[in-house]
Amino acid sequence: PYLEVVKDCFPKAKIVIDRFHIVQHLNRALNGFRIRIMNETRKKSETDYRKLKKQWKLLLKNEWELDFTDFRTHRLYEGCVTEKMMVDYLLAINPRLRQVYTVVNNLRFALYNHDFELFDNALEETRKYSLPRKVRTTIQTLMKHKEGIRNACLFTLSNGAIEGVNNKIKNIKRSGFGYRNYNHLRARILISYR
């Protein structure tokens, strides 16, 4: 929402969209579609519903970081399985879920490697598919902000450190159940950063 203000106040500034927010946007789209498929599956197969519900973090994990060598037992599966095998099973439940998962992972991979050409090609490739409405909205948002995403791939700037500080302060406020005295809150924050 601040892009227009920034452009008016700083006309020569280069807009850099934080990669964290791009990935967060993609993950929300994927997770929202997973929830929709999970709810549709509930009536058909209770076990598939449970797997989709309990293993949401596994679907949001980057595909190239999935473990495919370490076999372990899992309470939702029979025998020994790897993370890759579990994700393959979850994606086999619904072909559209596999399609959305592939699109999101291709875009995240391009961002991870700071390769805007690959990111742009992956965005253009999505025009060939019929994607769910919320996923399509996410893709259109990314297409609208290509210049900021290009700069995000070129520069290594990130506001992750500032967001971490803000999150820590919010957690201090939450754990204190509210502070009556601002000076006590301030002292607590300063102590935690020493």
Task: Report on the architecture of this protein.
The protein is mainly α. The protein has eleven helices and two strands, in the order H-H-H-H-E-E-H-H-H-H-H-H-H. A two-stranded antiparallel sheet has the order 1-2. The longest helix is centred in the N-terminal third of the chain and has 23 residues. The mean pLDDT is 93.
Strand content: under 5%
Outline type: globular
The separation of the N and C termini measures 35 Å
Q: Which residue ranges are poorly predicted, with pLDDT under 50 across at least 5 consecutive positions?
A: none
Query: Structural class of the helix and strand makeup?
Result: mainly alpha
Placed side by side, the strands forming the largest sheet appear as 1-2
Q: Overall mean pLDDT score? A: 93
Largest sheet: 2 strands, antiparallel
Q: Report Rg.
A: 21 Å
Distinct helical segment count: 11
- What helical percentage do the residues reach? 55-70%
Number of strands: 2
SSE pattern: HHHHEEHHHHHHH
